[in-house]
Design brief:
- About 0% of the residues lie in helices and about 50% in strands.
- By secondary structure, it is mostly beta strands.
- Strands 2, 4, 5, 6, 9, 10 and 11 form a 7-stranded mixed β-sheet that branches.
- A hairpin with a 6-residue loop joins strand 5 and strand 6 (about 60).
- The chain starts with a strand and ends with a strand.
- The model has no long low-confidence stretch (mean pLDDT about 95).
């Protein structure tokens, strides 16, 4: 019933900025903490950022702190990932997840996932 759709991924150059979006439909957006994860070739899916249901709490993996910002717009049922000073190592498929109970970094705690959007950072 819940559907998540990511958008915004594309090829950019190192140092560029990009904004990813994820729209939730089917249930009340404010029931869920929203997270961003990514998976690069040859690596496991890894946590990027999460925002609580009310937007009051956020968390980031160390390698993106100071460069990425997660936010949510409840009126549009949308969570964003603002990415700045992108690096080649940020290249990955980025996934949006929704967690009904948890505001956590563990992908296993998320109830729903989008199909992903590709971000490619070239040097």
């Amino acid at each position: 019933q819940v559907q998540l759709v990511e958008s915004g991924g594309r090829q950019v150059q190192a140092g560029d900025s990009l904004r990813l979006s994820c729209v939730l439909s089917g249930r009340a957006f404010t029931d869920y903490a929203m997270g961003w994860f990514r998976q690069a070739p040859g690596k496991e899916r890894e946590f990027v950022a999460v925002i609580s249901r009310n937007g009051g709490n956020t968390d980031y993996r160390d390698s993106v702190k100071g460069r990425f910002t997660i936010s949510r717009d409840d009126a549009k049922n949308t969570v964003f990932l603002h990415m700045h000073n992108l690096k080649v190592r940020d290249t990955a498929v980025y996934y949006c997840g929704a967690s009904y109970i948890f505001t956590v970094q563990d992908a296993g705690k998320y109830d729903y996932w989008g199909q992903g959007t590709q971000v490619t950072v070239s040097s």
